[in-house]
Sequence to fold (404 residues):
Amino acid sequence: MDAVAAYRALFTEEGRRNPFPLYATLHDHGPVLELGDRSPHLVVHGYDAVSRVLRDPAFHVPDMDRMSRTRPDWPEHPALVVFMNSMMFSNGARHVRTRRLVTQVFTMRRISSLAESITAVVDQLLDQMAEHGSGGSVVDFMTELAYPLPSNVIGALLGVPEEDRPWFRPHVIAIGGVLDGGSPQKLVDGDKAATELNNYFTDLIAQRRAKPQDDLISTLAQAWQEDSELTEAQLLSTLVLLFNAGFETTTHLLGNGLSVLLANPGSMDLLRDNPGRAASYVEEFLRMESPAQFTTRWATVDAKVDGFSVPAHGDVLVLFGAANHDPNRFPAPGMFDPARPDNNPLTFSTGPHFCPGAALARLEGEIAFSRLVTRFPGLTAAGPSTRLDQLALRGYTSVPIRIA
Fold:
């Protein structure tokens, strides 16, 4: 199979299910694939090349101006409006202004202080799992832990009432489906979810402005009022995307990580005996099964990537998942090795759009896996897992297990 055929195969059902042999074919042909006048102009998949593109100021994320060129009807779709008003899809001063406010409240000190409360949530969920899985009953790891843990953690951090958090799950899934493209129905579902999320956060912002609390919604709402350059639409989008990113990425880190452990029972035993190694396990889960498989950039000027030219306004597809399996950076990339030296996957991006919630996701993963394998030494798979039918987001909708 040549590189172009491998690239095209990524978007088939089999490619979405298992892209890694296709990534290997791409790597056999170098770090960059040139598609010429087609879109994207380049597919960048080598680790070093991906890192350079993500840091290069010549390449921007798709923003309002870019979307107006490629999809002029975007303002008619609430889901696309949410994305375009967020820092995830902004560049330059607009991105810096929003990101600065988010990172000021999303500090390492604040995240580190959450360890005790995260542990309490994990233990409570494991208690429920023990009850539901008693007598050898099958339980779904996604339902029991992978969904509710990050939902409760990011919900508490933002200030979303506990009773409202389960409501977010279908909305998060619908919004995430828009980024993967595909059927028009995904955009319809995403638009409906975005409208309902906007209405929800509009009401919650009003409540917090009237009666502030010790949460991120109160802090960000106040900061927005003090910066005349920021709009209310940007605040809404920031809250929607913070909840979605804080929920979805961690959910699939947990589901993907457990699937890797179930396929490597010796490594599960080693973690049980050495729970202090959980951080290195999480890093290897992120490398092997990155929840985010790709992102896009566009060239603001005529540019080059590893000698390949990209004309101004040319699109570049950046494959995180392939970069994390680059054999030039990670020898034997298909092997699970939590002792892998210098393990620095690009799962959370790098450069100006590095994920501000990366430390929180890692902390949740470390606590969840160390407590899970210690609590349930007899944990085993209980049948095939069900994957999301997406390439952009890699994860599971169901991971059936037995805990004894």
